[in-house]
Amino acid sequence: MRWSNTLRSLLFSCMLLLAGWITVNADREDFYRLHQLRLEGKILPLFEFIKRAQAIHSGELLEAELELKQGRYVYEIEIAGNDGRFHELNFDAATGEILKIGKQ
Hints:
The model is unreliable at 16-26 (pLDDT under 50). The longest helix has 38 residues, at 2-39. The chain is of the alpha+beta class. It has 2 domains: 1-42; 43-104, Nuclear Transport Factor 2, Chain: A (Roll). Strands 1-2-3-4 form a 4-stranded antiparallel beta sheet, covered by helices on one side. Strand 3 (86-92) and strand 4 (98-103) form a beta hairpin. The relative contact order is 0.12. It is built from 2 helices and 4 strands, in the order H-H-E-E-E-E. The chain has helices at 2-39, 46-56, and strands at residues 59-69, 72-81, 86-92, 98-103.
């Protein structure tokens, strides 16, 4: 019984380590992929969109993501507005076009 608990704990620890390694590698790959898109001129810098989103809705940045949607890259910016609402703004990452402005 004791060995099975020890073995179970050891296996669980190994699974956690492996999951952490996979996450770190995925983040590294994402960084290089995004960096390459910027170098190739396929997307504009994220900071430009954060500034634009905060100019539209002042508040605190909660999240910024780059998603591939229907063949185009989209920055999704979420802001906790000074008006007490959450705002989501979507921009075309290549052209800068505003695709969506929403409130929650």
